[in-house]
């Protein structure tokens, strides 16, 4: 939650986050990983340490840059699916 609050402040948004995916059970994660090569088999979603989000009043590329600038964990950019991934793991970007 601290990461999301900091990201909201950094982005300047006045709207709530739209959550695409938060915690995933191992079964749900395995199903998603089998259907897509973009889902990690050992995803931090299964540890409640990752979330996929968007903000309606912030361009996705701007939200991505705000998250990258925080250097607070992993940040993924999924333009076609219209969301970014943020997590509290090691700092990395994709």
Total helical segments: 3
The sequence of SSEs as H and E is HEHEHEEE
Strand order of the largest sheet: 1-2-4-3-5
Helix percent reads 25-40%
Specify Rg, calculated over alpha carbons.
Answer: 13 Å
Taking the sheet with the most strands, its summary is: 5 strands, mixed
Structural class by secondary-structure content: alpha+beta
Please report the distance between the alpha carbons of the first and last residues.
Answer: 22 Å
Low-confidence segments, given as residue ranges, are none
Proportion of β residues? Answer: 15-25%
Shape: globular
How many strands in all?
5
| Overall pLDDT | 96
Task: Annotate the secondary structure layout.
Blueprint: H1 2-11, E1 18-21, H2 26-35, E2 50-54, H3 60-70, E3 74-78, E4 83-87, E5 92-93
Parallel strand pairs: 3-5
Antiparallel strand pairs: 1-2, 2-4, 3-4
């Amino acid at each position: 939650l601290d990461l999301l609050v900091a990201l909201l402040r950094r982005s300047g948004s006045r709207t709530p986050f739209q959550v695409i995916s938060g915690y995933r059970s191992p079964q749900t994660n395995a199903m998603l990983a089998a259907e897509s090569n973009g889902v990690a088999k050992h995803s931090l979603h299964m540890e409640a340490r990752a979330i996929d989000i968007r903000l309606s009043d912030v361009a996705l590329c701007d939200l991505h840059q705000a998250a990258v600038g925080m250097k607070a964990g992993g940040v993924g950019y999924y333009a076609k699916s219209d969301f970014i991934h943020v997590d509290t793991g090691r700092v990395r970007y994709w």
